[in-house]
Amino acid sequence: MPTLAVIGSQWGDEGKGKITDYLAEDADLVVRYQGGANAGHTIKVGSEVFALHLLPSGIIREGVLSVIGNGVVVDCDELRTELEMLHKTGRTGDMLRISDRANVVLPYHRMLDGAEERARGAKGVGTTGRGIGPCYADKIARAGIRMGDLLDEVYLWERLDTVYPLKEKLVQSLGIKLEQDKASLLGTLLEYGNLFRPYITDTSVLINDAIKDGKKVMFEGAQGTMLDIDYGTYPFVTSSNCTAAGICSGAGVPPSAIQDVVGVTKAYTTRVGAGPFVTELHDAVGLHLQNVGGEFGTTTGRPRRCGWLDMMVVRHAVRLNGMTSMAMTKLDILNDLPVLKVCVAYEIDGQIVEDFPGNIFKLARAKPIYEELEGWTSASCSPAEIKRKGYGALPKNMRKYLDFITTNAGVPIEIISFGKGRDETIDLRKRRWSE
Q1: pLDDT digit string (tens) for 362-414?
Q2: Tell me, what's the pLDDT at 386?
């Protein structure tokens, strides 16, 4: 049963796009199972750079079928834009399938997202304004429109006849007005139905058949474990399950179908938007990580908050996802820092805490307990030597840093990324995930 899940072990932005693209060399299918256009994956192939928000990272690999699962909420505008971008590079986008059960982000979802966040004022949760939360809320409230609905004009009109008046009243209560009337919205959705008709199918059947046939299937997460609706820093989270557990409902596969889980972990910690962040730095080191690491959101351009690596977060992710290995990214950003700190526990109200707490008020009072390690210089970290010799060319103190993380997390680091390119990767796996 050759399956692999790629999961973010922090607050997203760990470099999952690069790692997914790298591992997709062995894949037949890459399945995106949650999130929406509020996530962004950046992939570098030679001199080309791709910023993807909805399309699975496997779409860049020739011969790999990319699947948008039912757990994803689809912004049709964004999806069309990404497919057009793909066509401009000479790639057809034909190797794409979209679940007929995936919910559609509608214009009023974006309006509601912005209005609700403004209404929260200083207590906002830092949404991207892409309509993701309101779309998931409609899904749970059984008031959503699904991709398969766009293929049936009569049924789509019935659905709009039910949900549109409710949204009309809701936006009026917030002092705004819907941009499109019901008939206009119907026309827009039918156009998208015609555009995406070749791709829309029952992807659960497709994925399960592929697994039964022995094909290599990769599940790609968006965001990261700490943004999971249940196990993240609630309420400063996204609206879906980012953990491996979300694969079952978001792709339509049984738990027994998930074989290996790779946790993508950045060598330091970042997060976008509001919410608790115990190891956040407000000093020159924090600025170094932000500027040298290019820590600005792929989707929003917002600067990311930066801090030392937090093993409380990583161990939380290892346990929740059943991680079998880690992929470590952006080690090179720590070059030339003389001392590196790694948080191994919290002190909260005088007590030592070693398991990540669910209460954000406790987190607000948490103080990081650090272990210090010696840094390394960029002069001792030659990209050319690393490409030529691999792990043995890494500076001694960098290897010590990796060993410390492995010991503390309890799972091995099998992939090390030291740049955006596919060739800027050290692969320590003893076996391929597809074996």
Answers
A1: 999 999 999 999 999 988 888 778 888 888 889 999 999 999 999 999 999 99
A2: 84
Task: Give the Cα separation of 51 and 282 in Å (integer).
Answer: 29
- Spatial distance between the Cα atoms of 316 and 414, rounded to a whole number of angstroms: 19
Structural domains of the chain in order of their starting residue, each with its CATH number: 3-89+202-427 (3.40.440.10), 103-196 (1.10.300.10)
CA angle 4, 57, 214 (to 5 degrees): 35
Reply yes or no on whether 282 is catalytic. no
**Residues 144, 138: contact at Cβ < 8 Å?**
yes
Q: Given 21, 28, 41, 100, which residue is catalytic?
A: 41
Residue 13: active-site member: yes
